[in-house]
Design brief:
globular; four-stranded parallel beta sheet; binds coproporphyrin III; iron; 8 strands; metal ion binding; EC 4.99.1.9; alpha/beta; 2 domains; binds fe (ii) ion; porphyrin biosynthesis; Rossmann fold; 38% helix
Length: 414
Amino acid sequence: MTTVTHADGAGPAGGRDDAARPAVVPYASPAAAAGPEHVEEPVAYDAILLAGFGGPEGQDDVIPFLRNVTRGRGIPDERLEEVAHHYRHFGGVSPINEHNRQLRAALQAELDARGLDLPVYWGNRNWAPYLEEAVREAADAGDTRLIAIATSAYSSFSSCRQYREDFARVLEATGLGESVTIDKVRPFFDHPGFVHAFVAGVRDAVLDLTTGEDAVPVDAVRVLFATHSIPTADARRSGPADLNERLGHGDGGSYAAQHRAVAAYVVEQVTAATGLEPGWDLVYQSRSGPPSQPWLEPDVNDRIAELPGEGVRAVVIVPLGFVSDHMEVMWDLDEEAMETAAEHGLRAVRTPTPGVDPVYVSGLVDLVLERVHGTPTAERPAVTELGPWFDVCRPGCCENVRAGFKPAAAGLAP
Ligand SMILES: CC1=C(CCC(=O)O)c2cc3nc(cc4[nH]c(cc5[nH]c(cc1n2)c(C)c5CCC(=O)O)c(CCC(=O)O)c4C)C(CCC(=O)O)=C3C
Ligand SMILES: [Fe+2]
């Protein structure tokens, strides 16, 4: 390799000493790296497709729902019964469908208030109303160019690709593949609308714990950012493979990197607002699968158990990986992690999820409008240096090595 020095300040190096710079591609935001995975063409979408996970709404729904979730994965019935127990504890009802009904209404109200004529269709991956019904309903109304919002903010098989594979499956199953297109807004983990509720929640929790009669000093407060654990094999393949390699994301891949970046931002904002600087960790929850299969660690409960030995007296649990207070939050955090904290003599606060926070809802509409208007990267808000993330996933992005290749919509053709 030849090094050219532009001593006169002209030329591509702008007068800086090229020889002194490391021979790696300088890091730029993935979307800024341009290419066809970033869209600046305006698209006249007909409607929004709100794509949810789905959840049971009564005791009789629980086992059929769990069979849907685990379809094709050969999860034994004993494991299903174990998880069913979490749902049974709450009358067999997950609040997730009700959350999505409310989110749909809030989105529609925000769109109407802004004078935007975009209907919102809602369908789930694993329970009624199914994505199939939503897509058929849209097509029947003549709405064929759909922009999807999945209720999941990060990159990984479970949080992005699985939704896209389901879109492809539904287009095939309904025979609408020729007439209907489904695109998807970018993973929005670092959109200011998504992070807003987390910043407010951590700020309030840290202020509460460190003031008043039973105040705890800030260095005895630990903030635990909790997200769904996933197999390390999935995590390593989350986001574009070349990016993981280039940025040295390691076993956690883009999935963990995105969470770390948002967590660091949240703590920075809390420090800026309060002058308090609590320590924090990224922790994982809701692991399943055989013990022999490595998943992301540490588990939230294991980390909590270590904290008293480090002088910690209060813990703030932040459900950073989730958009609403569904079963993973209600059971794994509010029941299990809270109990672990109590057993270890720690005070504990669980902060809110975005839910239908107006700032979040308005941010989701902004994410849709980015694609409607073909907004340039520089004008797409992102609070971490990782983003704004790709609009359109690359071939192989977040592929599941365990389940094997399946076609996915809303991505570059392979
Ligand atoms: C990353 C991620 C999110 C966040 C992104 C997003 O929000 O989409 C998420 C959300 C959710 N996960 C949910 C429920 C379940 N997830 C399961 C299983 C799994 N999740 C995984 C990952 C994730 N899951 C993985 C890697 C598995 C193992 C299966 C495999 O090998 O790939 C199982 C099967 C039983 C079990 O194995 O525990 C259930 C019942 C509910 C509904 C809650 C409710 O009803 O209120 C929600 C929102
Ligand atoms: Fe899950």
